[in-house]
TrEMBL record, chain A:
Region forming the signal peptide: none
Oxidoreductase as UniProt keyword: yes
InterPro entries: Ald_Oxase/Xan_DH_a/b (IPR000674), Ald_Oxase/Xan_DH_a/b_sf (IPR036856), Ald_Oxase/xanthine_DH-like (IPR016208), AldOxase/xan_DH_MoCoBD1 (IPR008274), AldOxase/xan_DH_MoCoBD2 (IPR046867), AldOxase/xan_DH_Mopterin-bd_sf (IPR037165)
Pfam families given in the database record: Ald_Xan_dh_C, MoCoBD_1, MoCoBD_2
The protein's name in its UniProt record: Xanthine dehydrogenase family protein molybdopterin-binding subunit
Keyword terms: Molybdenum, Oxidoreductase
Entry keyword Oxidoreductase: yes
Aldehyde oxidase/xanthine dehydrogenase a/b hammerhead domain segment(s): 24-133
Domain of life: Bacteria
Gene3D superfamilies listed in its UniProt record: Aldehyde oxidase/xanthine dehydrogenase, a/b hammerhead (3.90.1170.50), Aldehyde oxidase/xanthine dehydrogenase, molybdopterin binding domain (3.30.365.10)
From TrEMBL, chain B:
A Pfam family the protein falls into: FAD_binding_5
SMART domains on file: CO_deh_flav_C
Species per Swiss-Prot/TrEMBL record: Pseudonocardia adelaidensis
Matching InterPro entries: CO_DH_flav_C (IPR005107), CO_DH_flav_C_dom_sf (IPR036683), Diverse_Substr_Oxidored (IPR051312), FAD-bd_PCMH (IPR016166), FAD-bd_PCMH-like_sf (IPR036318), FAD-bd_PCMH_sub1 (IPR016167), FAD-bd_PCMH_sub2 (IPR016169), Mopterin_DH_FAD-bd (IPR002346)
Name of the protein this chain belongs to: Xanthine dehydrogenase family protein subunit M
Domain annotation FAD-binding PCMH-type: ranges: 1-223
Keywords attached to this entry: Oxidoreductase
PROSITE patterns reported for this sequence: FAD_PCMH
Length: 736, 330
C-alpha cells in the first residue's frame, strides 16, 4: 500500500455491518419486495422427462378466481436468445416450442392477483404430452457424448509412457452423486416495467450479467434495465446464471403491464436453478517407490442436460496440484434428460479433488508412506506447467501446522487400529490447491461534507460479508472508522462488478477500492494543491497519512485538516472518484504465477462398527488465503464450506427416479443437508503471507473450504474401517 | 376453485359431528401434516379441515400403572413428562429421536399416530401408480430408489413406510388407543390399530370416518425392566429411521423375562416383533439368543433394490438394542 494509514482495520474480525439489519428482519431480500398493483406468477412444470406437448388446456385455469393470464409456448411472443455469458451459452428457453427435455421444465406460467390464486389455478392447467423414452443414466449407451466440451483437455509430458514404466501404478474409478445448491432463500424475481425501463429485483450473484441477459432478451439498452439485489439468502453458484423463470416473470409483467412477483418453491429449486452434476472419474497414477509422482491421468465424465451447456470440469484442479512431469486431463459431458446442472461451489473442483485426493491416500497406503509426507514430496514448489515461482504458496505450512495441531502423527496409522467403545475411529486428510481468479471491477467512492464516505458497486453480498470488508477496506485506507463508511451493493446501476462467484469478488473489489481510495486522496490533495489556507498545499499522497477523518503530513501529524474542512472551504458537497482493478496475470514483467488459495484439511471420523453410522468428530482446515480481509467473516465462510463438504461427503444426494427422471427427494425433510448435530467444533486456521500479485495480498476463499473435505472424510473412513469408499455420499449401506 | 374449508371446533362432540357428517372432512392437529398433504404436495383428499387444536385434549395423567396421554399433548411436552422420564425411558428416547425440536414443539401424539407415510411416490401427485392414493393403480415406489421404504408388511402393492419413532415403543408396550365417534367410545390396542397394506394400501387403520383419537393409555414398565430405543440413520438429527428398535425386558439370573420388542424404519406399520419375543422369552441373555431373535423378527422380508441392506441392518439393530438393555457386552 502506498498510503500510510494509522489505524489497522483490514483483517480485524469486525462484526457484519449488515448484521443488525438481517437479524431484525429489516434487510430486503428479492422475495420481500412488493409494488402496488403487483400480480403473482406460479410456474407449471412438466410431468414427463422428454416428449412433446400435444395440447395445453388453460380454459379452467383462466376461469379460476383472480387469474390474469396463463403464458404457454402457444401464446407468448417470440423473444431473441439471451446473450452468452463468459461461462458459456445461456440456459435453453423452455417456452420456445412444444418440446420437453426434462422433468419440471417450465411449460406454463399462471399469473393471478394473489399467490394463492395463482397456485390454485396452476393445478387446472392440463397438459397433454406425447411422451418418449428418456435418457437418464450417465452410462446409458444411447446418451450423446461430448468429448473435450470445454476445449481444455491437455497433456504435458508423456503420460502413457510414464504410466507404463512407473515403478508403482494405480488405477481406480470414483463416483460422486448429484447434489443441489439449496440456498435457504428461495429464488425470487420481481419485475416492474416503467415505459421502456425494466426494474428487476432478482436472486442473482451477478447483477451485471442479469442486466445484460434481460436487455438482450427484451431488446433494450443495458442502461434501461436495473437489477437490484441488496441482500441474497445464499446461492452457492445457483445465482450465476439468469434462468428462464426470470425472463418469464419480466415477460409476464410486460404483457400485463403490472409488476409481477415469482418465488420458486423448494421442489422447483431442484429443477430450475442448476445443481452439481454426478460424476464418474478414472484416476491413474504412476509413482516411484519413494512416492514421487511420475504420471497423473485424470478423466472425468459428468452429465449435462440435453441441448444445454454447463461448465463443470472434474479435472480442473489436477494439472497444478502436484509437481509431476507427465499429466493428462480429459473431460466429457453426457447429455441426459435432466434439469440442467449449473455451478455449485467449487464446481468440478470439489468432485475432482475427491478422486485425486482419495487416490493419493491410496497410493500413500500402498507405498507405506505417510499421506502428509507423500504430499510434501510432491509439493509443486513452482507452477507445474510454466516453472514460474508462485506469487505466494504456503501449502507446506498448511500441512506442517495442520499435522501438528491435529495430532496427526499421534494416531496409529494402521487401519482399524483405533476405537472408542463401539465406534471405530479414523483420521484422514487431503491437500487442496485452488485456481487463481481475479476479474475487472469498479467502485465509486465519495467523501461528503459530513466527513463520511460512500462506497458503491454493483457486486452482491451473498451472505459472505462483502458489505463489511468493503467498509473495512475503505475505512482503513481513508482513515475513517468502519461506521463512517456507507456501502451500497447489489444494484446494476452502480459501477460494474463481477459476479460473487469463483472466489473472485473480494479480491477484485479490494483492488478497485484500493485504487479508488488512492484516487480520492489525490483528488483531495489536488483540491487544496494551491490552497494557501491548507496545511497540505502542494503535497503528494506519499507525504500524507489518512487518520481520524483527516489528512495530515507523515512528518508532522499536526499539519493537516479534516476532509470536511477541505470540502467546506471549496464549497463542495463531496468529492467522488471511480476506482478500478483490471487484473492481468500475463502482464509483461510479471515473472511469477498468480496463486489461488491452498489448504490442508484434517478430519477425524467415528464409524459404528456394527451399524455403519458415520459421524465426523473433529475438523481442522489450515488455509493459505494470503491477507485475510476480515478474520471473522473469512472464518465463517470457510466453516460454512466445510459444513457443505460434510454434506457432500456423507449426506447429500439428489435422487432421480430411474424410470421417470423425477426428483424423489426435493424437500428439506427428504434431502439431507447437515444439521447442527452433524457438525463438530470446526477449527479454521489461516497461515501464509500476503500474495505478491493480488490487491492487498488477498486470495479468494469462498470455495476452497469445501474442496478436499469429501476426500479427507473418505480417507478417514478408510483409516477407521479399512474400507475404501470411492463413491459419494458415504452412507450406512456402504459401511455396515 | 379447489378450496379447503377451515373450521375451528368448539368442543369434542362438535368436532366429531362436523367430521362424521362430511366424508371429505378431516381433523387438523399438529403432526397430521394436512397442510403439507393438501397445500404443498396436492395429494390430500380432504376439502374441509376441522381444527381441534384448541380442544381440551392435552396433558397426561397417571392412572395406576398406566400413563394416560391425551391426543393433543405435544411430543416435546411428553418427552419432559416426569412419569415418562421415570417409567418409560424408551418412549422418551423415541420422542427425542423424532423430527426436530421445532416440529416436536408443534406435533401432537394423535398426529404422530396418524401421520401419513413419507413415501415420495405417495406424496407426489405427478406419480399415477400409487395404490394408497388410487387403489389398483400399482406402486411406482417398488421400482424406484427405495432406501427409505419398508421391508416388513410390504408387498408389490405397497412398500410405504410408517415412519413414526414414537409408535415403535408404543406398540412394544401394548399401548391402547381410545377413540370417540358419534356412536360412542371404544378402545383398540395400538398393535391392532394399523393395517398392513396387503390388497388395500389405501386403508391404513381401523378408524371409522369421524372417529377421533382422544387419548392413548401407555402401560408403565414394571420396576426392574430395562428399556431402550435405538435409531439408525445417516444424519444425526431430523431424519427418519433407516432402522430402529424399541426393547424392554428384565434379566433374572441370566434368563430373559417378559421381553418386548418392536421395530421402526422397516415396517409398513409400527412393527411388533412377537416371533422374536418368543425366542427371547425365558432364554439365556446371550448374543446367540439375540441374533436368533433378530432372525425371527426379520423373517420373510419383501425387499427391492435399495432396501436389501435393511434386512441385515435391522437384525444388527435388534441385537444391539437387546445387548444394551440386557447388559450383555459386545
Amino acid at each position: 500500500m502506498t498510503t500510510v494509514t494509522a489505524n489497522k482495520i483490514i483483517g480485524e474480525p469486525v462484526d457484519r455491518i449488515d448484521g443488525t439489519l438481517k437479524v431484525t428482519g429489516a434487510a430486503t431480500y428479492p422475495s420481500d419486495v412488493t409494488y402496488p398493483g403487483m400480480a403473482y406468477a406460479v410456474l407449471v412444470g412438466s410431468t414427463i422427462a422428454v416428449g412433446r406437448i400435444r395440447a395445453i388446456d388453460t380454459v379452467d385455469a383462466l376461469a379460476a378466481p383472480g387469474v390474469l393470464t396463463v403464458l404457454t409456448h402457444e401464446n407468448i411472443p417470440s423473444l431473441p436468445d439471451a446473450p452468452a455469458s463468459p461461462f458459456g451459452p445461456p440456459p435453453r428457453f423452455p417456452l420456445r416450442d412444444d418440446r420437453v427435455l426434462h422433468q419440471g421444465q417450465h411449460v406454463a406460467v399462471v399469473v393471478a392477483e394473489s399467490p394463492e390464486q395463482a397456485r390454485n389455478a396452476a393445478r387446472f392447467v392440463r397438459v397433454d404430452y406425447e411422451e418418449t423414452v428418456p435418457v437418464l443414466a450417465i452410462d446409458d449407451p444411447a446418451a450423446p457424448i461430448r468429448s473435450n466440451p470445454f476445449g481444455t483437455d491437455a497433456e504435458h509430458g508423456d503420460v502413457i509412457a510414464a504410466l507404463a514404466s512407473a515403478e508403482v501404478g494405480y488405477e481406480e474409478t470414483f463416483r460422486t452423486a448429484p447434489v443441489t445448491n439449496n440456498p435457504l432463500g428461495l429464488f425470487a424475481t420481481v419485475a416492474c416495467w416503467d415505459d421502456e425501463r425494466l426494474v428487476v429485483h432478482e436472486s442473482t450473484q451477478w447483477p451485471m450479467q442479469a442486466r445484460r441477459t434481460l436487455a438482450g432478451v427484451f431488446s433494450l439498452a443495458e442502461t434501461a434495465v436495473r437489477v437490484l439485489v441488496p441482500h441474497l439468502g445464499g446461492a452457492f453458484g445457483a445465482g450465476l446464471r439468469t434462468w428462464p423463470h426470470t425472463i418469464l416473470t419480466a415477460l409476464a409483467a410486460r404483457l400485463l403491464d403490472r409488476p409481477v412477483k415469482l418465488v420458486l418453491t423448494r421442489p422447483q429449486m431442484f429443477t430450475a436453478v442448476g445443481h452439481r452434476p454426478e460424476s464418474v472419474q478414472r484416476v491413474r497414477l504412476g509413482a516411484t517407490r519413494e512416492g514421487r509422482l511420475v504420471a497423473i491421468d485424470h478423466e472425468g465424465t459428468a452429465p449435462v442436460a440435453a441441448e444445454e451447456f454447463t461448465f463443470d470440469r472434474m479435472t480442473t484442479g489436477t494439472p497444478d496440484a502436484y509437481d509431476c512431469p507427465n499429466v493428462a486431463v480429459r473431460d466429457r459431458l453426457v447429455a441426459l434428460n435432466i434439469p440442467n446442472p449449473g455451478f455449485m461451489r467449487a464446481p468440478g473442483h470439489a468432485e475432482g479433488s475427491f478422486a485425486l485426493e482419495s487416490a493419493m491416500d491410496e497410493l500413500a497406503f500402498r507405498l507405506g508412506i505417510d499421506p502428509v509426507e507423500l504430499r510434501l514430496r510432491n509439493f509443486a514448489g513452482t507452477h507445474p506447467r510454466t516453472g514460474l515461482p508462485w506469487s505466494s504458496n504456503a501449502l507446506r505450512e498448511c500441512y506442517r501446522l495442520g499435522a501438528e495441531r491435529f495430532g496427526w502423527y499421534v494416531r496409529d496409522p494402521v487401519p482399524r487400529s483405533m476405537r472408542d467403545g463401539e465406534w471405530l475411529v479414523g483420521c484422514g486428510m487431503a491437500g487442496v490447491t485452488y485456481q487463481w481468479y481475479v476479474t475487472p471491477c469498479q467502485v465509486r467512492i465519495s467523501i461528503g461534507r459530513d466527513g463520511t464516505a460512500r462506497v458503491a458497486c454493483a457486486g452482491t453480498d451473498i451472505g459472505t460479508g462483502t458489505y463489511t470488508i468493503t467498509a473495512q477496506l475503505a475505512a482503513e485506507m481513508l482513515g475513517l472508522d468502519v461506521e463512517q463508511v456507507h456501502v451500497e451493493l447489489g444494484d446494476s446501476d452502480l459501477p460494474p462488478a463481477p459476479q460473487s462467484g469463483g472466489s473472485g469478488l473480494a479480491t477484485s473489489l479490494a483492488g478497485a477500492v484500493e485504487d479508488g481510495t488512492r484516487r480520492l486522496l489525490d483528488a483531495f490533495l489536488d483540491l487544496v494543491g494551491t490552497d494557501d489556507r491548507s496545511p497540505l498545499r502542494g503535497r503528494t499522497r506519499r507525504e500524507v497519512t489518512a487518520n481520524a477523518g483527516r489528512l495530515h503530513l507523515v512528518s508532522d501529524p499536526d499539519a493537516g485538516e479534516p476532509y470536511a474542512h477541505m470540502l467546506a472551504r471549496h464549497d463542495l458537497d463531496e468529492l467522488t472518484v471511480i476506482g478500478e482493478k483490471i487484473p492481468d496475470p500475463q502482464a509483461p514483467g510479471l515473472d511469477m504465477a498468480p496463486s489461488g488459495a491452498s489448504a490442508a484439511q484434517f478430519v477425524e471420523v467415528r464409524v459404528h462398527e456394527e451399524l455403519g453410522m458415520l459421524r465426523v468428530s473433529r475438523l481442522l482446515s489450515v488455509m493459505d488465503a494470503g491477507t485475510v480481509l476480515n478474520e471473522k467473516t473469512a472464518r465463517s465462510q470457510v466453516s460454512g464450506a466445510l459444513v457443505m463438504g460434510i454434506g457432500m461427503a456423507m449426506l447429500e444426494e439428489t435422487v432421480f427416479d430411474p424410470a421417470t427422471g423425477r426428483i424423489t427427494n426435493g424437500t428439506f425433510a427428504d434431502y439431507l443437508i447437515p444439521t447442527h448435530a452433524d457438525i463438530p467444533d470446526v477449527d479454521v486456521v489461516f497461515v501464509g503471507e500476503p500474495d505478491r500479485v493480488n490487491p492487498l495480498g488477498a486470495k479468494g476463499l469462498g470455495e476452497v473450504g469445501l474442496v478436499g473435505l469429501p476426500a479427507a472424510v473418505a480417507n478417514a473412513v478408510h483409516h477407521a474401517t479399512g474400507k475404501r469408499i470411492r463413491s459419494l455420499p458415504i452412507t450406512i449401506e456402504k459401511l455396515f | 376453485m379447489s378450496t379447503v374449508e377451515y373450521v375451528r371446533a368448539q368442543d369434542v362432540p362438535g368436532a366429531i359431528a362436523l367430521v362424521a357428517a362430511d366424508v371429505a372432512a378431516a381433523y387438523l392437529a399438529g403432526g397430521t401434516t394436512q397442510v403439507d398433504l393438501l397445500l404443498k404436495d396436492g395429494v390430500g383428499e380432504a376439502t374441509r379441515l376441522v381444527d381441534i387444536g384448541r380442544l381440551p385434549l392435552a396433558g397426561t395423567e397417571q392412572v395406576g400403572d398406566v400413563l394416560r396421554v391425551r391426543a393433543l399433548t405435544t411430543m416435546a411436552d411428553l418427552a419432559e413428562d416426569p412419569v415418562v422420564i421415570a417409567r418409560l425411558p424408551l418412549v422418551r428416547e423415541a420422542l427425542l429421536a423424532g423430527a426436530s425440536p421445532q416440529l416436536r414443539n408443534m406435533a401432537t401424539i394423535g398426529g404422530n399416530l396418524l401421520q401419513r407415510t413419507r413415501c415420495r411416490y405417495f406424496r407426489d401427485r405427478r406419480v399415477t401408480a400409487c395404490n394408497k392414493r388410487r387403489p389398483g393403480s400399482g406402486c411406482a415406489a417398488v421400482h424406484g430408489p427405495a432406501r427409505m421404504h419398508a421391508i416388513l408388511g410390504a408387498s408389490e402393492n405397497c412398500i410405504a413406510l410408517h415412519a413414526s419413532d414414537l409408535c415403535v415403543p408404543l406398540v412394544a408396550l401394548d399401548a391402547v388407543v381410545h377413540l370417540q365417534g358419534t356412536g360412542g367410545s371404544r378402545t383398540v390396542p395400538l398393535t391392532a390399530f394399523y393395517r398392513v397394506p396387503s390388497q388395500r394400501p389405501d386403508v391404513e387403520n381401523v378408524l371409522e370416518h369421524g372417529e377421533l383419537v382422544t387419548h392413548v393409555d401407555v402401560p408403565l414398565l414394571p420396576s426392574g425392566m430395562r428399556s431402550a430405543y435405538l435409531k439408525v440413520r445417516d444424519r444425526a438429527s431430523y431424519e427418519f429411521a433407516l432402522t430402529s428398535a424399541a426393547a424392554a425386558l428384565s434379566v433374572e439370573d441370566g434368563t430373559i423375562r417378559t421381553p418386548r420388542l418392536a421395530l421402526g424404519g422397516v415396517g409398513t406399520i409400527p412393527w411388533r416383533a412377537r416371533e422374536a419375543e418368543d425366542v427371547l422369552r425365558d432364554a439365556p441373555a446371550t448374543a446367540d439368543t439375540f441374533r436368533a431373535a433378530a432372525e425371527a423378527a426379520v423373517r420373510d422380508p419383501f425387499t427391492v433394490p435399495g432396501t436389501e441392506f435393511k434386512v441385515e441392518l435391522a437384525k444388527r439393530t435388534i441385537v444391539r438394542v437387546l445387548k444394551d438393555v440386557s447388559g450383555v457386552p459386545s
